[in-house]
Amino acid sequence: MDKSPHKSGFVRVNGVILHYLDWGGSGDVLLFLAGMGCNAHIFDDLAPRFTDTFHVMALTRRGHGESDHPETGYDVDTLTEDLRQSLDALGIDTVILGGHSMANVELSHFSALYPEQVLKLVFLDAAYDRTSASYKDMVENSPWKHIQPPGLEADYYSPEGYFAAMKRAYPSFTLIWTEALEGQSLHEITKTPDGKIIDRMSDAISKALGDTLTSYILEDSKIKAPALAFFALSKGAKTISDEWMTDQQKAELLKHVETRENTWTRESIELFRRNVPHAKIVEIPQGHHYCFIEQEELVYEEMRKFLLE
């Protein structure tokens, strides 16, 4: 059950209807953007903690949650225009943007196009270069290509069964399976006419978003606003299962994490440091990609210090 103290609303912008949450508060607007496959509810625990100082909101991009799922519009320009028009529709002139993972695309491009509207930026394990050779090497040589998690081929007819299978297949979700995560996940599934639980996001939309992620050339050097970036190191170690993986599979994954994955992460850190020399960077050893959930206290404290500076 969703217990987060927010209001829920919709805006009609750029040919689609987008869903947003509003936790209230006064002061500058702090707007959160979720990563790929997630929606505004992912911030149900973190967001309300800032309402004493900020007006806190979150927007769900197209193709996710309760927002429209059109077949097109998943390129960087359209996604960023969705954001711009949403701010206009909500009467927001200037904004603090906090984004997780894929939201790097909107944060970077919006800041390049509309620097006068951006007060501050917070990257939640988001400021990554996915066009780099090290990223391509990491993906092409991932041991996951040869590992088949159990239970993914079965049909499930209840959210509980579906989520249990996902957590078993991907142990990283078990570590962060809070009430907020379950609540947001309920908005990312639907039922087929015969009652089977499936993802709401189609394969075509998923591919379009993935293509945008891996082709967008970062514009971080154009960022003028104060910026805070969290980077989770060795996050791939959280994906290892002691229940169903072999010792060889676990060893290969750990080697992959400590070499290729961390090489890409550290290259992204140095690139962001060069492009945004005024930014504050927080490295999280043995972090989680959803650092704002597993390392919530660290993220909250660092965000609060940064936002109140």
Can you give me a brief rundown of this structure?
37% of the residues lie in helices and 18% in strands.
Mean pLDDT: 97
What is the H/E string? EEEEHEHEHHHHEEHEHEHH
**Pairing-aware structural class of the strands and helices?**
alpha/beta
The CATH architecture is 3-Layer(aba) Sandwich
In terms of DSSP E residues, the strand content is 15-25%
Number of helical elements: 10
- CATH-defined topology: Rossmann fold
Extended strand count: 10
What can you see in these coordinates?
There is one protein chain. With 309 residues, this protein is of the alpha/beta class. The chain has one domain: Alpha/Beta hydrolase fold, catalytic domain (Rossmann fold). Helix content is 37%, strand content 18%. It is built from 10 helices and 10 strands. The chain has an 8-stranded mixed beta sheet with strand order 1-2-4-3-5-6-9-10, sandwiched between helices. Helix 1 packs across helix 2 and helix 3 packs antiparallel against helix 8. The longest helix has 29 residues. The mean pLDDT is 97.
Give a topology summary:
Blueprint (H helix, E strand, L loop, with lengths): L6 E7 L2 E9 L4 E5 L21 E5 L16 H14 L5 E6 L3 H10 L4 E7 L8 H8 L18 H11 L1 H5 L3 H8 L2 E3 L5 E3 L3 H13 L11 E6 L14 H29 L4 E5 L6 H4 L1 H12 L2
Helix pairs in contact: 1-2, 3-8
